[in-house]
Write a structure and sequence with these properties.
- This is L1 transposable element RRM domain-containing protein.
- By secondary structure, the chain is an alpha+beta fold.
- The protein has 3 domains: about 80 residues; about 100 residues, 2-Layer Sandwich (Alpha-Beta Plaits); about 50 residues, L1 transposable element, C-terminal domain (Rec A Protein, domain 2, 2-Layer Sandwich).
- It has a 5-stranded antiparallel β-sheet with strand order 2-3-1-5-4, covered by helices on one side. It has a 3-stranded antiparallel β-sheet with strand order 6-7-8.
- β6 and β7 form a beta hairpin.
- The longest helix is centred in the first third of the chain and has 80 residues.
Length: about 230
């Protein structure tokens, strides 16, 4: 009988130990649940922050695209406002005297060997930059705004065919007038010319700033020099 009582007592002690272990396990489980709930709350908060950041990125991308569009429109408007301009490089300083418009009306028909009908008319003309202090310095370009765009095209096409126009000692180069952004793109395109020639690729630079590439009978137009690199 005593032996049975001892075994029952031992079993009771084991059960008490198991109760204690179960209580500890229950407490640990409760703690883990609280930690998991905390993690879930943090994850939920992070999800919201990520969603907010993604929304800001989308908004910023839209703003960047809108800004690029507005810059493109502004550049286009500036180029259009300059379409009647021609830059002349090579006229010695002071050769125009006191009336630059009279000088251009008199000299350009002789320089181009063209009888303009109607005669040349200008809205304005002037030298670019500060007056040279040294007579040995390169003369400043003259920029002239013509009244008629057709006459601008005549002169620029002649210059492209013949190169510099000559009259006596004068050797005058002509170029269209572009916005800074367009001029930079044209320079970037032209810097690729040696490479294109080396690759035996036919190319042409057209206004305002687009390059036509032809290879193996296929042609493609590029508007961004980076696309050619």
């Amino acid at each position: 009988m005593d032996h049975i009582l001892q075994e029952i007592s031992a079993v009771g002690r084991k059960l008490e130990g198991m109760d204690t272990a179960m209580s500890a396990l229950t407490a640990e489980t409760r703690s883990m649940r609280l930690e998991i709930a905390g993690f879930q709350s943090q994850i939920y908060g992070l999800d919201h922050r990520v969603a907010a950041v993604e929304s800001q990125v989308v908004l910023q991308t839209d703003r960047d695209q809108e800004l690029l569009y507005l810059r493109s429109k502004l550049t286009d408007l500036e180029d259009r406002s300059r379409r009647n301009n021609i830059r002349f490089l090579g006229f010695p300083e002071g050769i125009e005297g006191t009336d630059i418009l009279f000088y251009l009306r008199d000299t350009l028909p002789k320089l181009a060997d063209i009888t303009f009908d109607p005669p040349l008319e200008f809205q304005r003309a002037h030298r670019l930059g500060l007056k040279r202090q040294n007579g040995k310095d390169r003369p400043r370009p003259i920029i002239a705004c013509f009244l008629r765009h057709r006459q601008v095209r005549q002169l620029l096409q002649l210059s492209r065919r013949q190169g510099p126009l000559r009259l006596g000692p004068l050797e005058i180069r002509l170029s269209a007038d572009f916005s800074k952004e367009t001029a930079d793109r044209r320079r970037a395109f032209l810097s690729l010319s040696p490479r294109l020639r080396h690759l035996d690729v036919k190319f042409g630079l057209f206004e305002p700033a687009r390059m036509l590439i032809t290879k193996n009978g296929e042609s493609r137009t590029f508007y961004d020099p980076e696309d050619l690199k």
